Amino acid sequence: MEEDTTPREKDKHGADWYRTLVEEVNDLATVVDPDGTITYVSPAVTRVLGYDPDDLIGHEGYEFVHPEDRERNADALEAVLSDPSESETVEVRFRHADGSWRWIEATMRNRLDDDIIDGILLSSRDITERKEYEAEARELAEEYEALLNNVEDAIFLINVEKREESVRFEFERLSPSYERQTGIITEDVQGQTPRDVFGEEQGAELEANYHRCVNAGEPISYQEELRVDEGARFWQTKLAPVVNDGEITRLIGVTRNVTERVERERQLRQQNERLEEFASVVSHDLRNPLNVAQGRATLLDEQVESDHLKPLVRALDRMEAIVEDTLTLARQGDTISETESVSLTDLVGKCWGTVDTEDANIEIVDEMTFEGDPDRLRHVFENLFRNAVEHGGSDVTVRVGCHDEQGIYVEDDGPGIPVEKRDEVFEPGHSSARGGTGFGLTIVKRIVEAHGWELSITDGTDGGVRFEIEMAKQKDFA
Fold first, then answer.
1. CA 317, 322, 325: angle at the middle one, nearest 5?
2. Is the dihedral angle over the CA atoms 290, 293, 299, 300 positive or is it negative?
């Protein structure tokens, strides 16, 4: 049997359905009269803005709109009143019941001719999170622009377009610094591939690194040779992927012109090679005849009595010390490439045992372990101990311990070094001790700096001299 539904029952059913829909949806429905007075607001206002509907009905909506947004809201209302066939969407800040401001997107429609609504219908939703995200995005964009336009390092952006069996890389944008350093501008390369810009050979090398970054899915660093002009040939580059929805869509490169550094390193390598040649000559061509002269002088001293023999032997021994220190100086200044764990106590003990310390005393105040080259560091401590005995006397006391968190000190209770002389003592050939070669502290400084550390001089605890080795800037040898 069919249900007999009268028109009135149908209208009532439709009204109930509409009322349920309005009450349950998250969007906020509001009706205002032409003056802006609220005549109806749906229950969603409690979830969205914290008000009970009766708190708003009878009030002008403008009361709750942020003062800076009221004019925009009034213009939209006037527009729908002037042209009932058009709707207007406006974004305004609306005061929440707790006093905070929420961003609301409201679409206005003129329903004055509707007997039921009889007003301006506003369909509104809370867009506060979206507006906050947009504000953050604008702030990030401004920071990005500031970084791109002001950083000294050259920055380039590469679009990554993945195809079925290949990946296409296209230049998107270059920073002003990149343009200044290379003479290449964004307008000339935008949309072009590295091969289009730099030629087949260099372009292929660039793309190989771009592929490596995409395949790794993480930042990579490398040095590349990209000849732009004579003053810009070698570049240190860091490349990072930008991921959107799980796909790498862009690469951001930060590169620095290191041509001068590379050329300087090349010159240093050549100088080191020449020093090695010099050391070999000294070791073979000078040391051998010197050893012969020492041997003959010793034999002659045993056979003949002469006042000239002892000064001769001392002079030959001094020549041997100078040769030894010169060889050490020539061979120990290179940057340290391999290190191992070093015990300060063990190292100091070995070095103290190899130096003629006579009646001097050694005190190891602290124990520590650090990374370094133990063979080269033996020259450091041996020379510092020898320096202490030469200047402080046979009964000097030497202390070794930890300096700050990452450092070592070696101090004695000798006469010390005047402040105005402290820079001079590191110069090659400088010696204030009789019979000294003048290379000992120069060797110490070179080896310390080869480790990436710093060496300084200050007063000792008991008035002597204190050498401080600062390892806070120790290089990463990984």
1. 125
2. negative
